[in-house]
Amino acid sequence: MKKGNKQSGFSILEIIVIVFIVSLGLLGILSLTTQNIRVQYINKNNLIASQLAQEGLELVRNIRDTNWTIEGSNWDTGLSAGTFKIDFDDNALQASSMEDAKLYIDGSGRYQHSILTATNFNRLITISNMNPDNFTITCEVQWRERNNTFKYIAETVLYDWR
């Protein structure tokens, strides 16, 4: 009887199919990782923008509250209808456009409008609907990322409740 030379193993075609399937799996994982990093960056900037918008509203609220502590001062002294850029030192400066309201970051991590280290955020505060006892504040924060412009808008009404 003649014995055959039977070898067990994988053929070239089987190896090519396995390499192709594994490559597709690795490509999917790489694509998912890249997308996760991109979304994380967008979410981080969205969170920063929401905090900057809230800070903008609080800066106007601080001006109102400071006015209450000054005897003989009206609650809305220094506040008028228009668009402004306001920093933590309570200086409300007229701003003509969003480009005029560029935010910079200083060495201690504070965002402000003076020229330091540039960020990709702009913040514009609009005061409108001025009445004797209330007005509306809208704070818009914009940033550009990969040729897209993103916006975050926060709004509140301040009252003379004193």
Detailed description of the structure:
This protein is α+β, with helices and mostly antiparallel strands. It has one domain (12-159). The protein has one helix spanning 12-69; strands at residues 82-86, 92-94, 102-105, 111-112, 117-128, 134-145, 148-159. Strands 1, 2, 3, 4, 5, 6 and 7 form a seven-stranded antiparallel β-sheet that branches. The protein starts with 11 loop residues before the first helix and ends with a strand. The mean pLDDT is 87.
Throw out a few tags for this protein.
162 residues; alpha+beta
Task: Tell me briefly what this model is.
The chain is α+β, with helices and mostly antiparallel strands. The chain has 1 helix and 7 strands; from the N terminus they run αβββββββ. It has one domain.
- Rg for CA atoms: 29 Å
* Shape descriptor: rod-shaped
Number of strands: 7
Number of helices: 1
User: What's the structural domain tally?
Assistant: 1
Q: What is the assembly state of the chains in this entry?
A: single chain
Mean pLDDT: 87
What's the end-to-end separation, in Å?
A: 111 Å
Helix-strand makeup class: alpha+beta
Order of helices and strands: HEEEEEEE
Instruction: Classify the helix fraction into a percent range.
Output: 25-40%
Summarize the biggest pleated sheet: 7 strands, antiparallel
**Into which percentage range does the β-strand content fall?**
25-35%
Low-pLDDT stretches are none
